[in-house]
Structure formats: structure tokens, C-alpha cells
Amino acid sequence: MSETRVIKKYPNRRLYDTEVSKYITLEDVRQLVLEGVDFCVRDVKSNEDLTRAILLQIISEQEHGGEPMFSTDMLTHIIRFYGDSMQSVASDYLRQSLEMFVQQQKDFQKNLTDAVTSNPINTMTEMTERNLKLWREVQDNFFQAASNKSKKNTGE
User: Fold this and answer.
1) Which ranges carry the PHA accumulation regulator DNA-binding N-terminal domain (predicted)?
2) Quick check: 17 and 31 in contact, CB under 8 A?
């Protein structure tokens, strides 16, 4: 198993990829993400992990050019969750929803391949049933966590 690739961030905002021994751009980091490379970005002076900040910067650039994924309303709702008692619940819900979506995409691609050799109606029915079950589980977990959080806040 390979080690995590280290990218150093210098005070002049330049990024240095220690594996290939050269300076890289945010676009190069984005490409590492797309290729599934495990990496971390570290401040060269403090050794602080800056990976999240760099990923957010990449998302910001992607949102600025082309068609954005996040609407103004969606971003407003996300901002409102920060500091709220529901922040961890919302974070867990978003994480689980995105993980489920990614898994569904993988399953869909596999099922599409399988559909060529099997009955496509049965394949789509099975996939739909699995997706509904997963979605219900995510919703149940969200509402259960929200209910528990609400009870803690009201002292029940």
C-alpha cells in the first residue's frame, strides 16, 4: 500500500509536490483528486494540515467557472448550520448522503455492464429497491440523531 503523498505549501502560496519534486498548481491537485491519489497538503513552516483549505479552494474555483453545484440557497443553509446545535447532525447527514450517492453511481455503472448480459428490467428493479432502502436508512438516522439532539437541548 502506498504512503500518503505530501504536498508542501510555501508562504508565497506555491505548492510543492514532494513525490515528483516540482511545483504544482491547484489544477494539478485537482487532477490528483480525480485520479484517487491519497495526499495531504502541509504548511512548510508549521507543518499544519491544509488539505481541507486547498480542497475548498479547488471547489471555489470550480464553482466560479462553469455551472455551479451549490446554489445560493444551499450555501446559505450550510452556513446557517455552522455553530448551530444541529451542525454535527447536518454534517453526518450530508456525508452519508454523498457516500450513498457515490455508491449508487458505482452500482449503476456495474449494473449497466451487467444489464448487457442479463435482464435489464430485473437489474433496474433490484437497484431501485436497494436505493430506496439505503435512502430510508439515511433518513431514519438523520431524524433519530435530530431527535436525540433536540431532547438533549430541551433537557428531556
Assistant:
1) 6-65
2) no
